[in-house]
């Protein structure tokens, strides 16, 4: 599943024309947020919730790597800082979600004293 998700993100990012029909202005930013949020959640599930920093770090490396690949390896595409920022927002939102869920679960497991 991880490989499939990674392939879909790379395929979409490095195609000459984006594969998703455009319905509104700046839609690609939402796509970045969703794609990298999903990647971060999946990497967190794969590595374990305690390793959320590793999952987030891998997702950040992927986001930077794809923008660099668009800039230097694909003649028809150009990496952009706004796209990278959107990807990072997705990573941060997913990471905050994981941290919040871990906090709730941890607090539910503690016995109530009183």
Structure, described:
The structure is a single chain. The protein is an all-alpha fold and 114 residues long. It has one domain (2-6, 27-108). It contains four helices and no strands. It has helices spanning 2-14, 27-47, 52-72, 81-109. Helix 2 (27-47) crosses helix 3 and helix 2 packs across helix 4 (81-109). 24% of the residues are buried.
The structural domain count equals 1
Q: What's the story with the biggest beta sheet?
A: none
- Please tell me what the overall shape is: elongated
Classify the secondary structure makeup into a structural class.
mainly alpha
Mean pLDDT: 88
What is the number of helices? 4
Give the N-to-C terminal Cα separation.
Answer: 46 Å
Helix content bin: over 70%
How many DSSP-defined strands? 0
Radius of gyration (Å): 17 Å
The unreliable regions are none
Strand content: under 5%
N-to-C series of helices and strands: HHHH
